[in-house]
Amino acid sequence: MNVSNKAIDFIIAEEVTSEASYNKRLIHPTWAGGDSGVTILIGYDLGYNDKATIANDLGKYLSASDIQLLQSVSGIKGEKAKAALTDKIKAITIPFSVAKEVFISVSLPKFWNMAKKYILKLIR
Question: Is the pTM here over 0.85, yes or no?
Answer without folding.
Answer: yes
